[in-house]
Amino acid sequence: MGPSIYPYLSLHLKYTFPLIISRPLFSVNKSYSFLFKRVMLPNVHYFSTKDWNEVYANYKKANRESKQKNDNDEKIAVFARSVFAAGTAKRKNEIFRSKSANEAQEHQENYRRGRGFKLPDHPLTTAEWKNLKENAENSRRFEIRVMNKMLCERADINVAKSFLAYVALETGTVSYELLLKYLALCVYANRHSEVFDVYDIMKSRFKAFDNAANGLFMRGFCMTERWKEALPILETIKKLSVPSPRNYADVIDGAVRHGDIATAWALYNEILDTGIIPKQQTWQSLFESGLSDPSTVERLESILYYMRDNQIYPNESVAQSIKAWFERLPGDKWKGRWSTGEPSAVCESCQVKLESLQLTEEEYRQLKDHVMTDVIEGQDIFSKTTPEELELFKAFVKQNPAFDVVIDGLNVANTTIRGKQSQMLLEVVSQLKKQGWRVLVLGRKHMLQQSCKWDQRHMSLIQRRAHCFFTDNLTEDDPFILYAALHSGNHCVFVSQDLMRDHKACMPNSAMKRLFFKWQRGHQLVLNTWILKKVHFQFQTIQDYDTIVQTDKTSWHIPYDADGVDRCTFEVPQKWLCLTRK
C-alpha cells in the first residue's frame, strides 16, 4: 500500500503534525510614505522576501523592547509573502488550527500507548488470532478492520499471511475484499511472488476483477519481467471505463524500465488523446528514458510545451530529471541551475527577463467578455442581486471616469483586529487617495448606519475621498468588484482578501480559468494587518512576471513544486529550474 493506493491515509497524516513556522515578520507603520513605491503600481511599495530578511534583526530587537514596555501589548504576525505563493495557505491554516493539531497529536500518542488495537509484530497461530478476536472491544467486521490496520501500518507480509490462514480455517474461504487488501499490501511491499500468487488465486475464483484489483495487478506486474501482462489488463479496463492516469503511469513506467520506449510513447499519446492529465511519474519516466535515446528531443520538449499550455508545474523529482536530460544532450551544451524569480522580473541565476504577468490587449478583451457573460450576467446572477440594482451599478460605473483601484469595502474593513471597521477602511482609502488614485469603494447599506463598528464620521470622510456605491445587504458584491475593475481598464487593480475561486470556476473552459488567474495575480492587492500598540497594514507583493514554463530558444525557465511544499490550486511555485546554453 502507498499514498498512491490509499491517498486518504497520507492526507490524514499530513495534517496530524503541524508545520512549525519560525520566521517572524517586521512591523512597519502605515504612516511611512516610503512604503508606497513600485514600477507597476508607482506609489505603492510591496515587500519582497529579501526585504524581510534584511529587517529580521531589527524586528527581533523591536519585539523584545515592546514586550519589556508592555507585557500585555498584542501583536499578531501575518505573512509578508504573496497570498498566491506556494505553501502560504497551508502555513496560515496551520497557525489557525494549532489547537486542533495539538489535539490530533495527543490522540495519536494515546493510540501508540495502546488505547487503540495493536497489531502483532510476528505471525500468529490460528488459536492466537481467534483469542485476539474474542478479546477485542468490538469484534464486528474484525477481519476487515485488521486488514485495514495492516495497510495503514505497512505490516509484515508474514503476519498478513498468518491472518489469512486463520480466516480461511475459520470461515472456509477468504473474501474478495480481504484478498484485495492483501494484494495492496503485497504491491506496496514489492513482494512480487506474492502478487503473482494472489493473481492466480483470484483468477481461478472470480470471473472478473474490479478496477481497483486490475490497477493493483498492473502495478505489481509492471515492476517485474512480466510487465507485458499488464497490457491486456489495461485493455480490459478500457472496455469498462477510461483508465486512470495512474493506470497509464504504471504501464509506461514498466515499458521504460524494460526498454520498450515505443510502447511507452504510444501509451503517452493515448493519454493526451483522451484528455487525461498525465501523472508526474509518467513525465519522469519519459525524461529518464531520453537519457539513453537522443532521438526523442522533440517529444520531450513537447512535454514542456504541454506544461506551459496547461499551466502545470513539475514536482522536484521531475525537475531533476529534466535538468539531467538537458545536461546530457549531445551537441548543444546546456547548464541547469536552481533559481528563483527576482522582483525585477528577471531570473536570479541568468538574469534573463521573465515573461510579464500583464495581459495583452487581446487577452484582456477575451477575459472581460467572458467575465461579463459568465459571472456578471450568468444564469444565477439575480440570486445575488436584482436587475434594478445591477443596471443602476452599470450606469454608475459608466458615468464616472475609469477607476485606478476598486476596494471591497466590507472585506477590507473586516481585516482589522482591533477598533472600528470603519476606521480600518478609512485608513486604506486615505493612503490610496494620497497617491492620487481614483478610488471606488463598494460597500453595503448597513455600513451607513451608526453602530459600534461603523462610525458615520469615518464613513463621511470615506465618501469625500472616494467614489462609493452601497448595495443591498444581501447582495453578493464580488461580481460588482470584477465588473468595475475590468470596465476601468487593464491598469485598474482591486483590493480584497477574497480569492474569487467561485468566479474563476464560472469560466467556460480551462484556458479562460488560467487567464482569469493570471489577471487576478497581477491586479489583486491583498492586505496584511497586525497589531503593535495600534493597527498597521501593508499590501502584499505583486510580482511582475508570470509563473509558467517559458523559453526563448536559448534558455528554458521551469517553475516547479519544491519537496515539502504543499501548494493549493490558487498558488504558484516559488522555485525555478534555469536551463541555459553554454
From TrEMBL:
Protein name per Swiss-Prot or TrEMBL: Mitochondrial ribonuclease P catalytic subunit
Which reaction is recorded as catalysed by this protein? Endonucleolytic cleavage of RNA, removing 5'-extranucleotides from tRNA precursor
Q: Where is the PRORP domain?
A: 345-578
The record's section on CDD domains has: PIN_PRORP
- Supply one GO molecular-function term: metal ion binding
Keyword field contains Ribosomal protein: no
A GO-annotated cellular component: mitochondrial ribonuclease P complex
Q: Which Gene3D superfamilies match?
A: 3.40.50.11980, Tetratricopeptide repeat domain
Cite a single GO BP annotation. Answer: mitochondrial tRNA 5'-end processing
Q: Which organism is it from?
A: Conger conger (Conger eel)
Coiled-coil spans are none
